[in-house]
Amino acid sequence: MIKAGLSRIVFFFLYLLSLLPFWFLYLLADGIYIVLYKIIGYRREVVYQNLINSFPGKGAEEIKVIEKKYYRYLADLIVETIKMISISANEVKRRMKATNPELVTHYYNQNKSIIAAVAHYGNWEMAAHRFSLIPEYQKIIVYKPLSNKRADQYYQQIRGRFGAMLVPMKSTLRKLAALKNELTFTVLVSDQTPVQHEAQYFTRFLNQPTALFLGVEKMAVMFDTVVVFADVRCVKRGYYEYKIVTLFDYAKQTQPYEITDTHTKYLEEMINREPQYWLWSHRRWKFKPEGAV
């Protein structure tokens, strides 16, 4: 009861904070950056190690520049995520612009379902809101449940505000099978790390062997969907645009691991373009394939 009460108080406080205008939240973000980077050094060793392993050709000064830009963006991401609690649909559309919405309409008119590979790049929570506002399709957002059930409930409330169906990772196949007669637009975060005993496939990603989930590929092939990638660009502080890039029109015609390698390669290109917007503080490389050094 005490924990539940505290959770409600915290969420209510965050809700009130979310009502503040963006300009004020970014003032808070400037302070959060100082705390995260300069005072407590939040996961700086993890970030630094990830960067030097991913960009062996960059010198110490280049790595330091990316590191600082990352922490500045991480602070912005924190306040922007809080803002997602109460942001309006019109504001989401204004700040996360679709550059080619006609592509989604094209596949809808062809009676084809879509699976979209997305990543922890840019503001993925705002992107989830934006995908929820696509007028066609039944929207499905696949998520990994949090260990804290109360926090998980709150996140579901936030992510489902604009009508998307939130489906836990382990229930996705069953849900898509139940909806096989409907046109669905399913969003999966493709750059999460599987636990070691579930790591079925490794590929070269950012200059190191990387374990990958095969969820996008398995579901796309099983239901023969179109496979797309969401290419996100940060235009300026608080403003983004995304382009839906078709990777495969017919998933069943692909070779094993072709879909996985393709969307992973596209993510790598996006990160190389502007690395500061990816989630470097995540422990992405927890283990290596057997026999690797």
Q: What does the model show?
A:
The protein has one domain (2-277). It is 47% helix and 19% strand. The protein is built from 11 helices and 9 strands. Strand 8 (226-236) and strand 9 (239-248) form a beta hairpin. Helix 3 crosses helix 4.
- In the predicted model, the low-confidence regions spanning at least 5 consecutive residues are none
**Order of SSEs:** HHHHHEHEHEHEHEEEHEEH
Quote the average pLDDT.
92
Number of strands: 9
Percent of residues in β-strands: 15-25%
How many domains make up the coordinates?
1
Main beta-sheet strand count, sense and barrel state: 7 strands, mixed
> What spatial order of strands do you see in the largest sheet?
1-9-8-2-5-3-4
Annotation field: number of helices: 11
Tell me the helix content. 40-55%
Distance between the termini: 49 Å
Overall morphology: globular
Sheet/helix structural class: alpha/beta
How large, in whole angstroms, is the Cα Rg? 19 Å
Topology:
Blueprint: H1 2-18, H2 22-39, H3 44-54, H4 60-83, H5 89-95, E1 96-98, H6 102-109, E2 114-118, H7 124-132, E3 138-143, H8 149-159, E4 165-168, H9 172-178, E5 184-189, E6 201-205, E7 208-212, H10 215-223, E8 226-236, E9 239-248, H11 258-273
Parallel strand pairs: 1-9, 2-5, 2-8, 3-4, 3-5
Antiparallel strand pairs: 6-7, 8-9
Subcellular location: Cell inner membrane
Protein name: Lipid A biosynthesis acyltransferase
InterPro entries: LipA_acyltrans (IPR004960)
Short account of what is shown:
It is found in: Cell inner membrane. This is Lipid A biosynthesis acyltransferase. The protein is an alpha/beta fold and about 290 residues long.
